[in-house]
Amino acid sequence: MDQDGNGCADDVIGYDFYDGDPNPAPSEPLASGTHGSGVQNAVTDNAIGVAAPPWNVRSFAARCGSGGSISLYAAIAAIYYLVPAGVWSFSMPFGSASPSQPLADACLYAWDSGTIPCAPAGTDGTEVIRYPAGYPGVLAIAAHGRDNRKSPFSNYGTWIDFTAPGVDILATAGPDGYEARSGTSVACNIVVGILGWLKSAVPDISRDSAVSWLRNLCDTMPDPLYWQGKLGAGRVRMSRNAVGAAEQREPGPITAVRNSVCRGVLVLAPGGSGTSSLLNPAGRQVLALHSGPNDVSSLAPGVYFVRSGPAAVTRVVLLR
Fold first, then answer.
1. Per residue in 282-300, pLDDT tens?
2. How far is the CA of 271 from the CAs of 237, 253, 274, in angstroms?
3. Phi, psi for residue 304 in degrees, rounded to 5
4. pLDDT digits 0-9 by tens, 231-243
């Protein structure tokens, strides 16, 4: 019965857009979606299996393919289903070097609705842009290993937003088992889990505030590609301080989002020092900053640093 009138009858836990039924469980026993669900939202503190980043978070499942392949039409239909259902963030664990305008439109619809789509950077080990990760309104996620450097298989480039763990991540792998897997899709699922964690701690946080907090909390990385601006804002990090700060509803000192969204504007929070400077990787000032919007559209893409007065660097930002 379609009690909510969304066109998908009996969709209690999600929907199978590939076969057109209310059971989103995969047909194959070791499907990547099962592993991804565990990475995103495995129950914590129950002494069973593995644990995911969030607490008290519910998940929808949307099956869009089979046997490692994705139906593009099913994926587009799933987005238009998930957003009205109130999904906060979702992972699109697939990619192609060929863009699709209908999928790009669906992703932008999700972003404009306040939802946060995430997608993997791809596993070619090159700078080639993969889609949907490369679309405006989608967070592109690269993978790093135990040494906090980019995983050899991970794509990279100035189009990346964040880098997350993506090597030998243990998670669910069927009805009764667990398996360690690697990939940028795994890293992408970790980011979705962290966003769910933040939303559960601060239910009224906005999309822009959540992405800004995630960006501002990133760690620097020893990989030269990070300093070239090709691994996004850096390694994602969870911190109790992050939740405490977010609960105060105070903006971080810098809000920086992809230029496709902010149109070349870097916002320095009110109350910031009038002597703040934007520095390039060589430590030279490229722009004097002031509270409020700062036009950075003339600057080349890459990693920059914010310094307030004579103090040390206080923030790393990535301009697109």
1. 567 888 887 777 788 787 7
2. 26, 9, 9
3. -130, 165
4. 999 999 887 555 5
